[in-house]
Prior knowledge:
Elements: H1 7-32, H2 38-58, H3 67-70, H4 98-127, H5 133-197
Helix pairs in contact: 1-2
Amino acid sequence: xxxxxxxxxxxxxxxxxxxxxxxxxxxxxxxxxxxxxxxxxxxxxxxxxxxxxxxxxxxxxxxxxxxxxxxxxxxxxxxxxxxxxxxxxxxxxxxxxxxxxxxxxxxxxxxxxxxxxxxxxxxxxxxxxxxxxxxxxxxxxxxxxxxxxxxxxxxxxxxxxxxxxxxxxxxxxxxxxxxxxxxxxxxxxxxxxxxxxx
Length: 198
């Protein structure tokens, strides 16, 4: 592996670029503010930047993708590619088969259509009007509040009914006692009347 592709070199390159940029900025600050050493600082910073830009111009840029690991030579129009679906190659590379590529693209298109349907379902859900839901929740809350009030009134009514029953039972008992007293008075009266006849 080339030295410029190794991770430690990439880290060192970023470090040197960052330090060089900070030297340029400090040099510019010293020069603008007319501080002592501003000329030396700006010169050192610009020379550092010139060296860094030269190095960056010589080092090839890093690729941001890794398709070459799957399809070596994909970046080259003349490359002979072995499609992944055909497994490992036996005896050298061969040109990319148009039919295989077409089948792969058809499979990808099918997956994209499925994803599109899924996104369409999400969009349909997004377009559902939930604006009246708040009113319905408030109405439901009012209904439950009224139901609680009605239950409280029924409970109070049950208490009143229980008291009424107790009062009627007491009245019945009193009436029974009065009937008994009245019966005794009648008996005594009869007895008195019967005694007077003798």
